[in-house]
Amino acid sequence: VMAAYGRNSTYAYLCVEENLNLNAQQALRYHVINFVAYDIPQLLDQLNGSSVALKGSRTLLIVQSPTLTYMEPTLGEALQSWLMNSIVASVLSLLALLIIILAVLTAHPLVAAIGVALFFLSVLPYVSTGWVWLILFAMGVVLLFMGLMTGGATHGILEGVGAVFIGLGFLSLFPPFQLQGQPLVISAFWPLVAGAVAALAALAGFAGLVVWKAVSAHLRRPVSERLLTLEGLEGTAAEDIGPGGVGYVVVLGEYWRATAKTHIRKGCRIRVVEAGTPLLVEPAGECQSR
């Protein structure tokens, strides 16, 4: 391609295979670039009267009273540029490792999914930019569904991070929708838009169905159940609860914040001692505290 436009084709090979770098004067000497200009007026002056190779023939360039249009990167392009930065990738990989370690040490393995997602973000510089939006969107959907399927055990953290990833994915996919007035050059853009919108509509429909079911179930609860005291009822610890610490238990099929005077392991049967905020619980049955 470079040879067809009168450029040094050897440089393209060496740039990829040997990571060759040239300064401005070297690039001009080896016919990698046509001019070296320090400002736009100087560049326009050098362009005027010059010729370039286009489609196998020389074309003379005449520049007379040009109108300058400054093209700024769209939000999606700026986002991709930021994600492709090697320093950002290093920070994200370190943060991912720390989150995974903390999640394992605190017995919250589901939170480790956020660390895994950040690790995938850190390897985006090695992925074609055309796939960035799809990777972000897929990770967001996975995190969102994981949060919904865990019944709120992650306190909305996975759902929130998943929603952010989905938003970032759409920002990377729709640069012409960001009011920059830049030309559309992707021939298969609208099929991509249709597929992405269909996926988003299906996801929004599912999330809406889950919310509607939850609200309708809450509204159908009888008054007697709403006023029912939880004291004396038994349930299951959804996570480890240390002495004086706070965690979640499942009573009557719902998650409740609870504290305990002794250590209670995840999965143990518990009994509600006092119905406050949070609940005061104690071990029940044969599940011994540590």
Secondary structure elements and pairings:
Elements: H1 9-17, H2 24-29, H3 40-47, E1 51-54, E2 57-60, H4 75-83, H5 86-105, H6 112-122, H7 132-149, H8 157-173, H9 189-219, H10 223-226, E3 234-237, E4 246-251, E5 254-260, E6 269-274, E7 279-283
Parallel strand pairs: 5-7
Antiparallel strand pairs: 1-2, 3-4, 3-6, 4-5, 6-7
Description of the structure:
There is one protein chain. The chain is elongated. The strands form two sheets. The chain has a five-stranded mixed beta barrel with strand order 3-4-5-7-6. A two-stranded antiparallel sheet has the order 1-2. Strand 6 and strand 7 form a beta hairpin. The protein has helices at residues 9-17, 24-29, 40-47, 75-83, 86-105, 112-122, 132-149, 157-173, 189-219, 223-226; strands at 51-54, 57-60, 234-237, 246-251, 254-260, 269-274, 279-283. The protein has 290 residues and is α+β, with helices and mostly antiparallel strands. The chain has three domains: 3-60, no CATH class; 75-179, no CATH class; 226-283, OB fold (Dihydrolipoamide Acetyltransferase, E2P) (Beta Barrel). Helices cover 46% and strands 12% of the residues.
